[in-house]
User: Fold this.
Amino acid sequence: MSQTYQPVVGLEVHAVLETRSKMFCDCPLVDSTHAEPNVAVCPVCSGMPGMLPVINQAAVDYALRVALALNCQVHPTSIFARKSYFYPDLPKGFQISQYEQPLATQGWLEFDTLEGTQRVTIRRVHIEEDTGKLTHKHADGQRYSLVDLNRSGVPLLEIVTEPELHSVEAVRSCAYALRSVLRYVGVNSGNLEKGLLRIEPNISVRPAGSTDFGTRVEIKNLNSFRSLERATTYELQRQAALVQQGGQVVQQTLGWDDDRGVTVAQRSKEFAEDYRYFPEPDLPPLVLDPAWIEQVRAALPELPHARHNRFIERYDLTPYDAGVLTAERQVADFYEAVLEAAKQADAKLAAHWVSGPLFNLLNEAGVELHALQFGPAELAGLLDLVAGGSINAAGARQVLGELFAHGGPPAEIVERLGLQQISDPQQLQTWVAAVLQQNLQQVTEYLGGNAPLFNWLFGQALKLSGGKADPAKLRAELQRQIAATETSGEELP
Assistant:
């Protein structure tokens, strides 16, 4: 994008509040990507005449958690409103939402970028219901659409930021930070592919240094962070080129064609007055007991950004490692439980093994942390063996693989597999001497200045030991014997 234009982006985030029942009826929430169509529908969520909605208290509790986690001002009284528009998957002809008096306003969220910590203002957080789902078909020369109302009436939380994001990296980092908050407070799984979290950027550009806003567009239906990045990048470049050529950006709603990598127009952007908002006559004002608000506030966990900073300060981790370990609450909890159980392993060793070998096994198996065959105490026991020199890193990976597959005490696995690390000086001397004698040419080349051959010789010695030698002591012994040969000037026998 040209440096003469500044990106201006705000986010609208729709998060399904994953309660057991819908927002205004007792129909259960079902996985709309797998459930049979229209199995979780009743007269209320299908918009039958005369049916009265009832507010889901659990959904309000979930919404409060998010609003307080985002440092918002929660309003003691909020009003539900009818947002009127016609669409085939909206059975009532209106959506119950909040408009003039939302649940909460004026919050903020901090997130980290390559340029440091940034803060975005949260304009509003409000509760609404989801629409149904349309499936478009083309068969036998006919085009038609099918309506599934399983999703109709599912509780949604809409989070709107101010347009304070000025780079694609900031957009992604902010969206990811919002997702982490939702997962930390336990209201949403963060699954974009299933539509449980929908992130929609409002994008415009303006001349660098200007404080005026350009004409904005909104991009819908982004189902991954990769799509969010690609669509935002494309649209910023498109608008900058258009303005630079003397054209005008049209305010509209866009879709993202992931295959072609372009945005496509869907409809002209509606304004608030187009929806004919008015207070929902079938629902009373939502009045919150201040004691309940404080109860929810007190029950909030330590949130991702605060935990990230604490991990850096308390455990002396790099910002990157702290970010990896605190992105998910479950991972951060597991890591700290490992540290609590460990007797010799330090924080950095634990961080390496949790975010490295353990994550690799989880990714390869396609499972999450809660599915492990072992707990933090077992991993702590394994890391204590590493820290104490009883087993080397290669052996520890074998043990971790056994733990992952079958569980069990690490010390017993080490003994059963014969992986105890050997540190006996006489045995190390024997292995190193054998390798040097078997590779006279390589030793001569190393002494002649071919430095990388040292690591090759070390690898041969480690291989001769069956991977059981203490690597640090083996390396020191190799250095000692080579240095002795160089000093004496004698050839190896």
